[in-house]
Design goal:
The protein has 78 residues and is an all-alpha fold. It has one domain. The chain is built from three helices and no strands.
Length: 78
Amino acid sequence: MFPTLIGTVVIAGLVGYASERMAFTHNGYLQSIIICVGGAFLFYFVALMFGFGFRTQGLNAIVASIGALVIVPTHWRR
């Protein structure tokens, strides 16, 4: 469980950094990473409690991170 949680955080951080690098979002690097990590944590624990999600934890982290970036409105988004 612990290595999966650490992997989720690393993947979410990479997705947040990549989204800023490719100009998908305009939140700032740190803000995008925080949003992605928060979304991945939330989806990880909900999937753990209720037993749903995709087959691999890595895919869960990627989808949750992108979903959090799309859902969370920020002041800087235009």
